[in-house]
Amino acid sequence: MPKIIVGHNVAFDRAFVKEQYYLERTKSQFLDTMSLHMCVSGLTGMQRAMSIASKKKSENDANGSFNPAIGWAFISSLNNLADVYKLYCHGEIKKDEREIFVSGSLSDIKEKFQESATYCAQDTWATFHILKKIMPMYLERFPHPVTFCGLLEMTSAYLPVNHNWERYLHEAQSTYEDLQKEMKLSLVHLANDACSLLPNNRYKKDPWLWDLNWSVQNIKFKKTVVKSTKTKRKKSADKSDGLNEKNQDPDESLVPEDTAMIDGVKDMNLNVIDPSIKQMYETASSLRKIRPFLPGYPLWYRELCDKSIVDDPDWEPGPYLISTQMRSVPKLMRMTWDGFPLHYDDKHGWGYLVPDVKELDISEPNDFPLESLLRLVECNKMDPTEAEQNIDPFWSIISEPNENRSEASKLWKSILGKNQKQEPWNLDQFSNGPHDVEIKGCHFYKLPHKDGPQKRVGNPLSKDFLSKVEDGTLKTWGKGQADRALLLSKMLSYWKNAHARIFSQMVIWLNNEELSEAIKHNEAYNESGLYGAILPRLIPAGTVTRRAVEPTWLTASNAYEDRVGSELKAMIQAPPGYHFVGADVDSQELWLAAVFGDSQFVGIHGCTAFGWMTLQGKKSTGTDMHSKTAKSVGVSRDQAKIYGR
């Protein structure tokens, strides 16, 4: 019997209906009231953020009302059931009992069955009344039946999988863990190499590491009191008077010579071991009970080391807490943007330092190693692999003798060329600066943020900069461990961000009785094989432009050889006897814009240059919209498709 099942975010409920996992479609359709609300009174992303902020503010307000400055507060709402019911039905529903379904167990639900059942009935009642209010509004705004049928069809998404799904999860996760260990080992080597620059303050010549916290902690010893024979006699007399050593400060006294106050050797008889070793153990008595963590190591290095007890089975010596999320890692990797070293500022976030050509005097004292930066800019013209093997290419460049003032000026002239009043780089491309970060002789430019120049970049190793890593804009100086770590970071980026969502996909495996006859009679059918399906929890109209929203499958990228797990879409495989049929509306938004433009001009499709391009433009000949945009701006066609929206 045909029927329509109505629910708020009904795709979540559909995922728990067993019949929906069968390959033969049932006569049931699902209607999402959340999508109806988005089509009629939905909010944009900016409006949603402002509404949430206004709602939080109203909770602390005595009146408990929305900010009247937000005009849409009374004609729209957020997408949750309580707010939607309040908007259309002007009532309140309580959602306190929902937590028992989120964090509770079956026994908890059984214990509070009446409350739980009442909560479900209340939500059903609220959804019914929302439907009564919103359905006439939807049909008035979208009267064509195809629009409504499309809304129903979008909720019937079905993704068949087989045994390759389990293999994909296992191999992707194991590969990720292996590469993650390799990347951590590379970062550990980088941290150890950077820590070796502490002697003689060599780090002060490094334009990346110069501003890390290099403060160290020293070992403190107990005070040694030299006691004369007279003092010993007096002490013996005091003992005879009933005084004891309990009143003595333990930190001011020395441990007896025949006892080693060090962990693990307290019971050792030092008289039977080598005298030189005995002398070494006896020095432990001079140490205080509370000792500094890793004395002699800089603070930034100590923050990368685990302070846990050595008996912990997961404990490892060295900076094994390091990860690409830490602020010091891009500096340890000596990352550059267009050849300029990255720098972090508390106010502006991550950016890069560009020499200021107007300040030619580099002989004055300066905390920042400006001279090293100049050498770095000059050596960007050469291949850093030409440096000697087993020597850091950066240190092979800056370890030359210091120049005097005249030689420093010659260095500037060699970089600037003939026109010494202008920079040898095009500053027009730097749209995020310059900013004053109080570094003499340098300009600071912010790294570009995907949400605009007003935002600051928190991590240059995030997935937003993968394209810049691929085209060489963002890279490490030299080769070796840093270059390998950057490559591994790119390889791990997809699985790192998507593995939780992929593992949370609910796969229902079907037994032989639940499979269709068309599958079982096909020659490719394997009785011992696995056949199942995933029902994506898709919102048919998740935006005000009525685009579908789903966090995993609608955002899945294409497969890349250097991305672990990026072959996700290839794991959706048709069962035996079935095939996938694909269809795509190329440049749908451009078509709609062209139709609107043509209707306002003459009323004939193709009467404008824009409309004619959508009709006759071809990708193969470079006459389509994306190819033309890419050519005019000077970017690739793929970049024009993304940034040309």
From TrEMBL:
Location of the DNA mitochondrial polymerase exonuclease domain: 2-138
One of the record's GO cellular component terms: gamma DNA polymerase complex
Domain of life: Eukaryota
Compositional bias per record (Basic and acidic residues), positions renumbered to this chain: 237-249
Biological processes, Gene Ontology terms: mitochondrial DNA replication
Gene3D superfamilies linked to this entry: 3.30.420.390
GO MF annotations, alphabetized: 3'-5' exonuclease activity; DNA binding; DNA-directed DNA polymerase activity
InterPro entries: DNA-dir_DNA_pol_A_mt, DNA/RNA_pol_sf, DNApol_Exo, RNaseH-like_sf
Stretches for region Disordered: 230-256
Species the sequence originates in: Larinioides sclopetarius
Signal peptide: none
Upper lineage: Eukaryota, Metazoa, Ecdysozoa, Arthropoda, Chelicerata
A Pfam family that the UniProt record links to this protein: DNApol_Exo
Name by which UniProt lists this protein: DNA mitochondrial polymerase exonuclease domain-containing protein
SUPFAM superfamilies associated with the record: DNA/RNA polymerases (SSF56672), Ribonuclease H-like (SSF53098)
